[in-house]
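Researcher: Good morning. I'm working through a list of sequences from a screen, and I'd like to move beyond sequence-only analysis. For each chain I'm collecting a predicted structure so we can compare shapes side by side. This is the next one on the list. No need for commentary yet; just the structure.
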Amino acid sequence: MNNVILKGFMDRFAEANGLSDIEESKKFEIFVASSIFRRRHQCEVWDVDESTMVIGGGGDGGIDAIAILVNGRPVSTTEAVEYLIETSRRLDVEFVFIQAKRSPDFRASDIGSFIFGVEEFFNAAFENNVNISFNDDVVNLIELARHIYSHAISMQRHPKCFLYYATTGKWIGENDPEGRMEAGKNSLQGKNLFSDVTINPIDADALQVMYGELERSVIREVQFDMNAAFPDINGVVEAYVGLLAGDQFIELVSTEEGQLNRELFYDNVRDFQGQNHVNTAIGHTLSETSLRHTFPLLNNGITIVAQSVKRTANRFTISEPDPKRVERFQGFVIQFGFATERSHTCPGQKPLAESIGGTARDIQA
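Model: Good morning. Structure tokens for this chain:
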């Protein structure tokens, strides 16, 4: 690998995870997959078993990593899917495919081969004209995809499909590779299996940023104007309670890519329960302009426990929140969904994110 800085990042990752002795090509594939899964999908690569994510090998269709995420969590068995349907009564599905090349080039032909492998994955699930022989691990995931689609009634929308093509070079948007990606996206969308298809080029700079952000503390800054300090509590450095504006709330719980940061809720006992009667009522309050101002009164609020809270006037810098201690996941997801899905408003109307608020408790333990 010619990129010295990226190699340093990869070697540090390998040393931290006991991978220093494996060959560089495999090490790079795992490094790329871990960075993308953790940063873009809040899914820790080491928390999934070998059949959930396929890393390279013969009969892989030119795909280095595959994961199927259901309700934000990786699944590898039909039993896991059935459990999530039973407990959440919904299916929110993402298919993620990754190809990692140590070459600095974004070759249109290699990109095309990668996209073709993904197309054949779904052809194997739903059609008979398959041109690739897949290994047993990939076949298991193909069968799992077929099983998931058999429960389409539990989906509020079709699954999303993400493709990532990573190299050690720099993406400059040349016509040939860009055109191949656009054609591949259109072809996959033409299968009518997905609500959205995204094909992302990942270059060395993007990998360095992703891994660097993962290694650093999670830091968020919010304007917390309406707050009051708690009195002294044994074992607590400082704590505040108050009303947090909707746009500041979205800033607090979003990743840099504007997605809900599920790492904050990874160890919550209950996943999002879907549109049950409580969550439907929350959504109704948020969607009705005449009711929206009552949201802080009706909602129980959220609690965030952080390693450090720095206050400058009413600007709070929160670092290293503990994922086990971010609570009230149901209202969290509903509020985030309404604020992001309805970001475009009529002239003269405030964006939803600015016109709602919620109770927040911010504790430095």
